[in-house]
Amino acid sequence: MGEQSKTIIDADSQAYMRKRNGTFKRWSKLLLRSKTGTVGLLIVLFIVFVAVFAPLLAPYNPNAINPSSLHVPPSWMEGGSTAHLLGTDNLGRDILSRIIYGSQVSLLVGIAAVLLSGIIGVSIGLISGFYGGFLDNILMRFVDSFLAIPTILFSLVFLAVFGPSIMTLIVVLGLTNWTSYARLVRGEVLSIKERDFVRAARSIGVKNNKIITRHLMPNVISTFIVISTLSVASTIILESSLSFLGLGIQPPTVSWGTVLSDGRDYLATSWWLATFPGIAITITVLGIIFLGDWLRDVLDPRTK
């Protein structure tokens, strides 16, 4: 009888998850209907392709200095060269190659920081929403306290104390974005835990940790995906901002923020140094936002 009850509970839980997430075929059909979603997906796939195959696509080493080619303008301008399509910087380094290689670090930091945020936020949200009571109050007050800390100020202090590097940048960006996951996941859990399949699981003595991992977690994955997609965009911007201020990625490692920072002193004379990495950031962020908006429409039941 117990096994039969568990089978019924699992079937109900899986049916609810399928209803919310849909099938791959349905997603594909909805994606093709959404112009912004399609454009966003194509942009994201292109940026990922560039980052993965950067060594093959970049015409030069991003840190190769060429004293004979300082401040060469883009190829279509007077004095430009087809050898450097987007021009060179104050050290003769090829801008196109630096942008291509910069995509690796910017995407790595953005995705890794969001995963860290998700792990922390989803875990706290699941525990807080499921157990409720005193534990819920303590965890939510902790979240509120963390929200009161200015993100930029916290990031600057953290990086000043522990030193700027890729790892510390991922950690600080992950620690500044987890609160949104915790609050939204908690809200989802408060609703889901009152559904029949969760009540039935409790009635037959299923342990709390199994209820959380087998019944609650799969049903908040859609919320995590939507938040994560949009958070990657804001994280890339924040990473670029910190690198621009000199507290993010440090030379000789190349990121879009460092390339942008290198060109800030030459905006009046060599505008391309800062313009093209800025365009790369803008296009990438727009693509992620477009894709995130489409995922929100598909996965979030409140928009249906």
UniProtKB/TrEMBL annotation:
Superkingdom assignment: Bacteria
Membrane topology per record: Multi-pass membrane protein
Principal subcellular localization: membrane
Domain spans labelled ABC transmembrane type-1: 103-292
Classification lineage: Bacteria, Bacillati, Bacillota, Bacilli, Bacillales
GO biological process: transmembrane transport
NAD listed as a keyword: no
Family of the protein in this entry: Belongs to the binding-protein-dependent transport system permease family.
GO CC annotations, alphabetized: plasma membrane
Name of the protein: Peptide/nickel transport system permease protein
Organism in which the protein naturally occurs: Oceanobacillus polygoni
Protein localization: Cell membrane
SUPFAM superfamilies membership: MetI-like
Record-annotated membrane-spanning stretches: 39-58, 107-132, 152-176, 216-238, 271-295
Protein's UniProt keywords contain Transmembrane: yes
UniProt keyword list: Cell membrane, Membrane, Transmembrane, Transmembrane helix, Transport
